[in-house]
Amino acid sequence: MSVYVIASLTIKDAVRFEDYRRMLLPTMAKYGGRLVARGGPIVIEGEWPRERLISVSPPDRTKLPAVTPY
Q: Which of 4, 1, 70 is nearest to 34 (CA)?
């Protein structure tokens, strides 16, 4: 089963967010995750409380590090 991440964001510090983005994208790529959609949401009805919306595809399970259960 695939699980997608959907994040609704309000960016308050553009400089810190850019630092985070520069770190995040290579990390996602390393494990096979990728951005599916990003940008401002298109609101058809009502209001949306955040300025950005992103959708991330699931990582490639073969690239994930092994996790040892407790």
A: 4
Does residue 35 contact residue 68 with C-beta atoms inside 8 Å? no
Question: Distance (Å, rounded) from C-alpha 3 to C-alpha 23?
Answer: 22
Indicate the CATH number for domain 5-61.
3.30.70.100
pTM recorded for the entire structure? 0.61
pLDDT in tens, the chain (70 residues): 677 888 888 889 999 989 988 998 898 888 888 888 888 878 889 988 888 888 888 777 777 777 777 7
